[in-house]
Recover the amino acids of this structure.
C-alpha cells in the first residue's frame, strides 16, 4: 500500500512516530482508508450497474440472442422484441445532429480561439456554456412548440429542392427524425465548441507564426496548420458530443414521433433506444418486456461507453490533461 | 508579393463563416431565453408556487408539490452523492498513487458519460424492484449516482489548486496529513468546492429521464420518502406532451421557472469561479 502522494509528499511522516497506531491516532490512516473506499466505490457502482443491467435482461438475452439486435419486430403483445428500429433511429438522429453540429461547432471554436479578441471570446464562451446547462426537457418543450411548427413551414421548401432524395421523401407531419436531429444538434454544439476551442488554443503559437511568416493567410494558417495540429482533440470533442446525443432522452422522446419503424426518409417519425425506454418502461408488464427494455439500456450503455472511452483517449492524447475535460 | 484574389476571398469568406456560426450558436441561447420569457413569464402567477395541480379545464392550479418534490429529490441526491464524490476527490488529490488514480478517474469520466436514462434503469433495478413501488427515495438516489462523478472531478480539481506550500507549512508545524487536509487544504478550497456542488445540483435539477420510473410522479403532496413524488422536470415533460392547451401553458411556466433557477445558479457559480480564474466543467 504505497501512499505516495500526488501532491508531492508522503502520507507517512518519517521518523519514529510513524507506527501504524500513531498514524491511526492522528487520523492519517483513517483518512486514507475512508477516501480510498469512496474512490473505489465509483468502480463498485459502475460494476454493479453493468451487473444489474446484465442480470435483469437474462430472459430476452436467452430467448432472442443476437437476433435481438438484428430483427425489427417490436410487439409486446406477441412477445416479439427486436431492437433494430430503435438502433436505426438512434444512429440516424445522431448522425444528422453531427452533420449539422460539426461545421457550426468547429467553425465557432475557430472563431473564438483564433479570431475573436479575448474579451469577446470569453463572454461568448460563457454564453455558450450556459447553453450547455439548459436542461434537455426545455429543449424538448421548445422542440414541440417552436421547432416543429417552424420545420413544418420550411419542409415544402426542402422538399422542392431535395425531394428527389429518399432522405426527404414522403409527407412531413412534424414529429420526425429530422426534428430530433435538429434538436440534438443544438444540444451538442456547446460541447463541440467549448472543448474544440480549448484544444485549438493549446496549439503553440510558433505554429501560427511560422505559417503566417511564410505568407499564408489567416484562414490558410488555421486550416492547414492549426487544425491538423488540433485534429485529435477536435475528434475527441466530436466523439463526446456523439456519445451525448446517442443517450439523449427527453428532447428526442418529445419530437421523434415514437414509432418503431425503419424509414429512409428523415421526414418520417422514428424511435430511439432512450426514447422507447422512457416511454414504455413504466407500462412494461411481464419479465420479458421489461427485460427487453433493460437489454436496450445495456446496448445503449455499451455504445456510449465505447464512444466515450475512445473520446477520452483522443482528448487525453491532445491535451495531456486528458480525462479532465468533461 | 500580392495575394491572389482567390486566396483573399477564401480568407474573408471562411473567417466570416466561422463568425456567423458563433453568433448562430449564441443566438440560439438568446432565442430560448426570449421564448421562455414571453411564453413562460406571462402566465406565471403565485398559484404556480402555492397550489396543487388541478384537473384539465379548471383554472388556477399550480405545481407546488412538484417544486417541493424536486427540492426533496435534490436534498436526497446531495446527501448520497456529494460525500462519496467529495471524499473520492480528496483521495485523488491528496493520497492517490498514479495507476489506481488513473483507473478511478477514467471510470469516473465513463460513468459521467452514461446516459441518464440508463442510470434510471439502474436505480429501478436496485431500489424499485426490491421495494416493489416507486418512491422519492429511488429518484433521489438515481440523481445522487449522477452527482458522484462530477463531485469527484470538481473536488479533486479545487483541492489541487491549493498551493503545495500551504500543505508544507502545515506539516512543518507538525500537523498530521489528515489534520493538514482538514484544517488547511479544505478551508482554502472551500469556495470552489461549494460552487462545484452548486453547479452539480443545477445539472441534476433539470434531469427528467432518471426520474420517470423511479420517483414516477404524483398529482398530490408526497409525504415522507416512500411514496412516488412529482418533480418539476417530469411535470414539464408530461404537461408538454399532453393534448391540453391549459397544460401547455403550465409547462411553459414550469420550464421558465426551471430554466431561471438553473441559469441563475450557473451564472452565480461561474462569476465566483471566474474571479479565481478557474471554471471546471
Amino acid at each position: 500500500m504505497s501512499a505516495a502522494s500526488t501532491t508531492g509528499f508522503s502520507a507517512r511522516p518519517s521518523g519514529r512516530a510513524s507506527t501504524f497506531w500513531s498514524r491511526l491516532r492522528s487520523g492519517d490512516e483513517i483518512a486514507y482508508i475512508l477516501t480510498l473506499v469512496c474512490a473505489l466505490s465509483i468502480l463498485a457502482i459502475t460494476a454493479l450497474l453493468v451487473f444489474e443491467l446484465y442480470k435483469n435482461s437474462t430472459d430476452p438475452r436467452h430467448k432472442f440472442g443476437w437476433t435481438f439486435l438484428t430483427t425489427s419486430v417490436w410487439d409486446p403483445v406477441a412477445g416479439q422484441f427486436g431492437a433494430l428500429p430503435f438502433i436505426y433511429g438512434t444512429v440516424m438522429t445522431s448522425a444528422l445532429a453531427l452533420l449539422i453540429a460539426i461545421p457550426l461547432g468547429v467553425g465557432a471554436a475557430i472563431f473564438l480561439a483564433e479570431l475573436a479578441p479575448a474579451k469577446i471570446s470569453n463572454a461568448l464562451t460563457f454564453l455558450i456554456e450556459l447553453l450547455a446547462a439548459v436542461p434537455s426537457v426545455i429543449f424538448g418543450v421548445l422542440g414541440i412548440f417552436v421547432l416543429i411548427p417552424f420545420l413544418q413551414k420550411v419542409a415544402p421548401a426542402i422538399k422542392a429542392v431535395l425531394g428527389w432524395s429518399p432522405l426527404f421523401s414522403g409527407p412531413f407531419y412534424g414529429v420526425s427524425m429530422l426534428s430530433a436531429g435538429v434538436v440534438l444538434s443544438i444540444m451538442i454544439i456547446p460541447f463541440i465548441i467549448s472543448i474544440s476551442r480549448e484544444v485549438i488554443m493549446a496549439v503553440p503559437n510558433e505554429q501560427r507564426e511560422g505559417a503566417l511568416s511564410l505568407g499564408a493567410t489567416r484562414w490558410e494558417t488555421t486550416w492547414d496548420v492549426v487544425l491538423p495540429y488540433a485534429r485529435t482533440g477536435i475528434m475527441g470533442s466530436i466523439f463526446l458530443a456523439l456519445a451525448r446525443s446517442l443517450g439523449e432522452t427527453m428532447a428526442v422522446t418529445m419530437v421523434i414521433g415514437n414509432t418503431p419503424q425503419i424509414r429512409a426518409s428523415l421526414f418520417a417519425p422514428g424511435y430511439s433506444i432512450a426514447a422507447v425506454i422512457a416511454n414504455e418502461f413504466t407500462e412494461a408488464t411481464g419479465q420479458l418486456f421489461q427485460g427487453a427494455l433493460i437489454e436496450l439500456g445495456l446496448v445503449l450503455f455499451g455504445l456510449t461507453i465505447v464512444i466515450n472511452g475512445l473520446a477520452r483517449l483522443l482528448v487525453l492524447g491532445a491535451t495531456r490533461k486528458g480525462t479532465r475535460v468533461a | 508579393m500580392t495575394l491572389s484574389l482567390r486566396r483573399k476571398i477564401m480568407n474573408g469568406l471562411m473567417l466570416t463563416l466561422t463568425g456567423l456560426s458563433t453568433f448562430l450558436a449564441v443566438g440560439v441561447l438568446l432565442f430560448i431565453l426570449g421564448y421562455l420569457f414571453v411564453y413562460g413569464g406571462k402566465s406565471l402567477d403565485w398559484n404556480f408556487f402555492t397550489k396543487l395541480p388541478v384537473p384539465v379545464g379548471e383554472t388556477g392550479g399550480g405545481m407546488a408539490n412538484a417544486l417541493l418534490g424536486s427540492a426533496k429529490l435534490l436534498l436526497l441526491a446531495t446527501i448520497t452523492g456529494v460525500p462519496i464524490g467529495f471524499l473520492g476527490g480528496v483521495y485523488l488529490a491528496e493520497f492517490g498513487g498514479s495507476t489506481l488514480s488513473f483507473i478511478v478517474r477514467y471510470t469516473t469520466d465513463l460513468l459521467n458519460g452514461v446516459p441518464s436514462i440508463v442510470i434510471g434503469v439502474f436505480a429501478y433495478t436496485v431500489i424499485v424492484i426490491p421495494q416493489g413501488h416507486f418512491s422519492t427515495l429511488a429518484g433521489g438516489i438515481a440523481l445522487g449516482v449522477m452527482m458522484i462523478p462530477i463531485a469527484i472531478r470538481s473536488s479533486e480539481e479545487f483541492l489541487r489548486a491549493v498551493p503545495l506550500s500551504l500543505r508544507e507549512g502545515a506539516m512543518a508545524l507538525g500537523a498530521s496529513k489528515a489534520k493538514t487536509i482538514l484544517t488547511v487544504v479544505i478551508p482554502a478550497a472551500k469556495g470552489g468546492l461549494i460552487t462545484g456542488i452548486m453547479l452539480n445540483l443545477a445539472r441534476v435539477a433539470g434531469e427528467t429521464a432518471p426520474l420517470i420510473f423511479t420517483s414516477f410522479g404524483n398529482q398530490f403532496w408526497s409525504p415522507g420518502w416512500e411514496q412516488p413524488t412529482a418533480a418539476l422536470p417530469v411535470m414539464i415533460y408530461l404537461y408538454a406532451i399532453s393534448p391540453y392547451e391549459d397544460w401547455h401553458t403550465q409547462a411553459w411556466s414550469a420550464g421558465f421557472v426551471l430554466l431561471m433557477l438553473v441559469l441563475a445558479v450557473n451564472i452565480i457559480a461561474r462569476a465566483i469561479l471566474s474571479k479565481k480564474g478557474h471554471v471546471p466543467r
About this structure: Chain A touches chain B through 106 residues (CB under 8 Å).
